[in-house]
């Protein structure tokens, strides 16, 4: 069996959107590249940056909701994080029911579109003239993930492939939650200090997924040999993310960490004081209400 043969593609999903040929996903990816590197910058050349605060917040909420939905469906299929560390054969080797195989493929197919919707994030950067954020790492990450998910779905769609998507989806919930909070100016002094942590979580995720790919390629595992492609891709992403982390965070990470602890102490001390004041006020109001109620009751009894 060759690594990829068009005639050997997954029979379950052949009639689904974007699965009849590779041209649709390639076309969308090329249009994305054209917009972010050529059409978008030319369009914004003589224009002021757009204020997309509301749009980005809604986008972040959409991504969080989409990832949470995907995670819930995966757990309904019996997924557990323990599967990251072991070989789970393809459905044809285990004898899953047709309905289970259909759901297994459907949610992976659905997740491809969720990841492709992340193209909007880069387009928002262009419209806000945040061209420094349209990096090779950012664009390659957004292009490679949905394309490899598509290849996996076309030729396997097994449970080990689903593990990759689920683990990635959980990290995206954290990541887009951070982006959502960062859109509020009052919180940025705290969220800015979390940037190194968010990047570190992404790097840790890549290492774990790389190990998962290695497990899939072990001689006794019947998972798709396409995990070779994902392992190469993850190795490249690990290198790019580590380079980004060392260049941007490592030199100031200790200072940032202690500053973060100091700011957190001040914030929570103030928060605790306000909570205590509110508690005292609430107790006084309840006490006053109870006393007035008792007085009213005694007054009514004396009249009778």
From TrEMBL:
It is an enzyme of class 2 (transferase). The chain crosses the membrane at residues 20-37, 58-75, 139-158, 164-181, 193-220, 226-246. The keyword GTP-binding does not apply. One of its GO terms (biological process) is fatty acid elongation, polyunsaturated fatty acid. GO terms for molecular function: fatty acid elongase activity. Keywords: Fatty acid biosynthesis, Fatty acid metabolism, Lipid biosynthesis, Lipid metabolism, Membrane, Transferase, Transmembrane, Transmembrane helix. It is found in: Membrane. Its main location: membrane. It is a multi-pass membrane protein. Its EC number is 2.3.1.199. It catalyses: a very-long-chain acyl-CoA + malonyl-CoA + H(+) = a very-long-chain 3-oxoacyl-CoA + CO2 + CoA. Belongs to the ELO family. This is Elongation of very long chain fatty acids protein.
């Amino acid at each position: 069996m060759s690594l990829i043969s068009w005639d050997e593609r997954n029979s379950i999903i052949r009639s689904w959107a974007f699965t009849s040929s590779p041209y649709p996903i390639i076309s969308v990816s090329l249009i994305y590249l054209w917009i972010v590197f050529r059409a978008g910058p030319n369009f914004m050349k003589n224009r002021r940056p757009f204020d997309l605060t509301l749009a980005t917040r809604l986008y972040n909420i959409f991504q969080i909701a989409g990832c949470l939905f995907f995670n819930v469906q995966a757990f309904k299929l019996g997924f557990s994080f323990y599967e990251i560390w072991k070989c789970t054969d393809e459905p044809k080797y285990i004898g899953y029911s047709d309905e289970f195989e259909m759901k297994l493929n459907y949610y992976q197919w659905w997740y491809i579109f969720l990841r492709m919707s992340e193209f909007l994030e880069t387009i928002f950067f262009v419209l806000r003239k945040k061209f420094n954020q349209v990096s090779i790492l950012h664009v390659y990450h957004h292009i490679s993930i949905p394309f490899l998910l598509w290849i996996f779905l076309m030729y396997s769609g097994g449970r080990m492939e689903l593990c990759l998507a689920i683990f990635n989806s959980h990290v995206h919930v954290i990541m887009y939650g951070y982006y959502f909070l960062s859109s509020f100016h009052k919180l940025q002094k705290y969220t800015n200090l979390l940037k190194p942590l968010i990047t570190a979580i992404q790097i840790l995720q890549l290492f774990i997924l790389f190990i998962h790919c290695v497990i899939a390629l072990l001689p006794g595992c019947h998972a798709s040999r396409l995990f070779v492609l994902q392992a190469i891709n993850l190795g490249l992403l690990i290198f790019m993310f580590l380079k980004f982390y060392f260049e941007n965070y490592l030199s100031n990470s200790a200072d940032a960490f202690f500053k973060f602890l100091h700011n957190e102490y001040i914030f929570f001390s103030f928060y605790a004081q306000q909570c205590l004041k509110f508690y005292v006020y609430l107790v006084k109001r309840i006490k006053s209400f109870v006393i007035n109620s008792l007085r009213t009751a005694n007054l009514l009894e004396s009249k009778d």
